[in-house]
Fold:
Amino acid sequence: MSKAFAALLCLLSLHGVCAAALDPADQWPNWRGPSHDGASSRANPPVTWNVSTNIAWKTPIDGRGSATPIVWGDQVFVTTAIDTGRKAEEKDLPSPDPRFGNKRTAAPDTWHRFVVSALDRKTGKLLWERTCAEMVPHEGHHQTHSYAAASPVTDGERLIVSFGSFGLYCFDLNGNLVWERQLGRQETRLGWGEAVTPSLHKGRVYVNWDHEGGSFLTVLDGTNGKTLWKVDREEPSTWATPL
Structure:
């Protein structure tokens, strides 16, 4: 997505994917789609498209986001991180962790808003927008992505949104906050940033938390966010989604 703002593009052919009966196979509920393989056996997308051809609508999105938009029913969910430009006072700047040296991306000194939005699938109209957190990031990110790099995931009942060190959030599909968790602060290799998308299966949320500090895999109860189990890992930074 662009530096100043992102344009979310909806392909014309995808309009017909939404069925009256919300079969999960007809949705795009998570990163890489219903089968986690980037494919849909029921879609028929155009083979050519650009900003003016085979596009049903486009909507400007403030900030920067590199996560996959997801689709459930008539809603499209997308995340973004917005640099407010508001300078942080010295007391609000996160302290760097000396264990990881100085060969890392530079952390910003401005407040960022971490936002999830729901758009109307047919028109692109904004249905609701929620600011999950407003924080000063403690490290930078890789130049090809952003602070909103983890894709949201839904099972049609709950919407799980992860901003990593900036919080894990559960909403209903009307934008009401159900629960939130703070799992700690990640220190990624070379300060490349965080991008692990959580998985949602049978009401449980699976989170991979690999970084240069203490890594772990944890499973949360999707109804209340409580930890069901957690296992430590010896892996350093990874960006893999648990499947």
Q: What stands out?
A: The longest strand covers residues 75-87.
